[in-house]
Design brief:
Chain lengths: ~180, ~425
């Protein structure tokens, strides 16, 4: 403390009380109106009814976006080409979530996966089939689209992803 | 070009899960007091401008800077508020740097302060309000509500980190012990830091591996806490810094780089990268900051690093992406003790975000602690002399990376 004009510490105020008071309050976050553009999804959603997958491609950098994107982040242009892609995919990465059933109290283990479709350059978040054992999931696992019986033209027409038998050589290194 | 900027001082408030003895403005004033204590010749009148920031919606208080101006000493002074989510602290520090380097008349000394009092609000509601805009589109596209809740649980910060962890572990062939080792080092370091939150001096790897999974591969013992706390930094010009402190720390390079949208994407359109642990933004920010600072060989020239790692896999990932270690070698370095306090390249000697996470302040505590290590005033001071150090931040919408490179020598090459 070298100067006479040094600011006084606020400690002397604080020692008068030890606890702050608490006033309960709440924010209601449900009354916002978020705006979305889904027109870029329209052709993709229409094709889902016919069990077909399409993705859009940036004509500048040739990256294929599945699900379709509104703008290419690399080139700052609108991807305008539509390409067909296959229904086979691989697990890009996964995480296992432990969710408690509110009624039975049972803890469910569900792997949430990022799916990398063959022919696409992006990933999307999805679920695996209920019969896939959690412990068998690994990065690079080949999977295939399982279609819902009645398709309505929504993303959930892809109910989940089935496991495909993996016969690749590098599997023994991964396990 | 801009003026040379120096850090004259940095200060922290005490961090805890519930600071119920202080209100939010008092918490901020605590950090400012500690900051001014480190630079005794600075009066409040010497400070020309203020930068303030925290994560909005986490405390349920919008525009908090307006009712804490008195507690900051910002009356009748220029005040700027910056908020960029997880990197708020890093962005506030960079805004402080910009204020000084711009050379505005009458603005030489800038006090930057970032804070968060998470016990006051609901962090999950805060996070939901961040993600809600992106996620609610999925409902429109036909995703049922119960699946949406599952996606939400996987879409929050922990979910993103779990995805990164899975690919990182697969790519580098590491195990959970390697992650636990990072946690043990951090929590033990935190025990020696006066302001840190989770202090566990006797933690072992077995203790960490005993805890249940929050989300595979991350266990409860590996996850960062939610803290209350604040951090303040004093930026000033080269000439004034010499009067204010013994060892001024010169800011030689800053970068704040955004990458393409992360996991969920906008309008339900997925991620732009196949590999979540690729982190091109971090590589680019390192390139930018190091080129400004004239660091050609980061592994050799950087003596101390503070990386923003709420989860242990991220600490391994960032040290590689920021050029401190070769690709896929970070786990070995932690095993060999290179990153320990007395090691060759100490990392996160304050305990890191893994031990103390007051979200808005966390990314500022990294450069602040890195600066104090150069000054020799850190509470867990490394034994060797630190000449160059870095402090990084990660957050935004999970894809914004801030980086600040500091040194005890001013850098004039690029000016």
């Amino acid at each position: 403390m070298s100067k006479m004009t040094q600011r006084k510490s606020l400690e002397y105020i604080k020692k008068d009380y030890k606890r702050t008071r608490t006033l309960p309050g709440s924010w209601y976050l449900a009354s916002y109106k978020f705006k979305f553009n889904i027109t870029h999804m329209k052709p993709f959603l229409e094709k889902l009814k016919e069990k077909k997958l399409i993705a859009n491609q940036c004509s500048s950098c040739n990256r294929v976006f599945f699900p379709p994107r509104l703008v290419c982040g690399k080139c700052f242009v609108k991807p305008d080409k539509w390409v067909d892609i296959r229904d086979t995919a691989s697990v890009s990465t996964y995480a296992i979530s432990y969710l408690k059933d509110p009624e039975t109290g049972e803890v469910q283990q569900r792997p949430m996966v990022l799916v990398h479709h063959d022919g696409a350059d992006t990933t999307s978040i999805a679920e695996l089939a209920p019969d896939v054992n959690v412990k068998d999931t690994y990065v690079g696992m080949p999977i295939k689209v399982h279609w819902r019986d009645e398709r309505t033209g929504g993303i959930m027409d892809i109910e989940y992803y089935d496991k495909v038998d993996d016969d690749s050589d590098d599997l023994r290194y991964k396990k | 070009m801009g003026r040379q900027v120096a850090i004259a001082s940095a200060g922290f408030s005490e961090h805890a899960s519930k600071r119920s003895d202080v209100s939010m403005p008092e918490l901020v004033s605590e950090a400012i007091e500690d900051c001014l204590k480190n630079a005794p010749s600075v009066e409040l009148g010497d400070i020309d401008a203020f930068v303030n920031g925290n994560m909005p919606a986490f405390e349920g208080a919008n525009i908090p800077e307006l009712w804490m101006t008195d507690w900051m000493g910002a009356r009748n002074k220029p005040l700027l508020r910056v908020t960029t989510g997880g990197t708020t602290g890093g962005s506030v520090a960079i805004a402080g740097y910009y204020n000084v380097t711009a050379g505005l008349p009458g603005v030489d000394t800038v006090l930057a302060v970032a804070f968060e009092q998470q016990s006051q609000g609901d962090t999950s509601v805060g996070l939901a309000s961040v993600a809600y805009g992106e996620i609610s589109i999925l409902n429109t596209l036909g995703v049922s509500y119960d699946q949406l809740s599952r996606l939400l649980s996987a879409g929050a910060a922990i979910g993103v980190a779990a995805y990164q962890a899975t690919t990182y572990m697969n790519k580098t062939k590491t195990h959970e012990e390697d992650l636990a080792r990072v946690v043990v080092q951090n929590r033990r370091n935190a025990a020696k830091t006066w302001w840190a939150h989770l202090k566990m001096p006797n933690l072992t790897i077995e203790d960490v591996l005993d805890t249940p999974y929050v989300q595979y591969p991350l266990r409860y013992g590996m996850v960062c806490p939610a803290s209350d706390g604040a951090c303040a930094m004093l930026f000033t010009t080269e000439e004034k810094a010499k009067d204010m402190c013994d060892i001024p720390v010169y800011v030689n390079g800053v970068a704040s780089v955004a990458n393409e949208t992360a996991v969920l994407g906008y309008d339900g359109s997925g991620s732009a990268q196949v590999d979540p642990s690729m982190q091109l933004g971090a590589i680019r920010s390192a390139e930018l900051a190091y080129s400004q600072a004239g660091i050609s060989f980061p592994r050799k020239e950087i003596d101390y690093a503070e990386v923003y790692a709420p989860f242990p896999n991220q600490e391994l990932m960032w040290t590689e992406k920021l050029g401190l270690f070769e690709e896929a070698t970070a786990p070995e370095m932690y095993k060999a003790g290179v990153t320990a306090v007395n090691g060759e390249l100490p990392v996160n000697c304050s305990g890191g975000v893994n031990s103390t996470n007051a979200i808005g302040a966390s990314a500022m505590e990294r450069p602040a602690e890195a600066a104090l290590q150069i000054m020799g005033k850190a509470s867990n001071q490394v034994p060797k002399t630190v000449h160059t150090s870095i402090g990084s931040g990660w957050g935004g919408s999970l894809n914004l990376i801030t980086l600040m490179a500091m040194s005890d020598q001013p850098q004039r090459k690029w000016r």
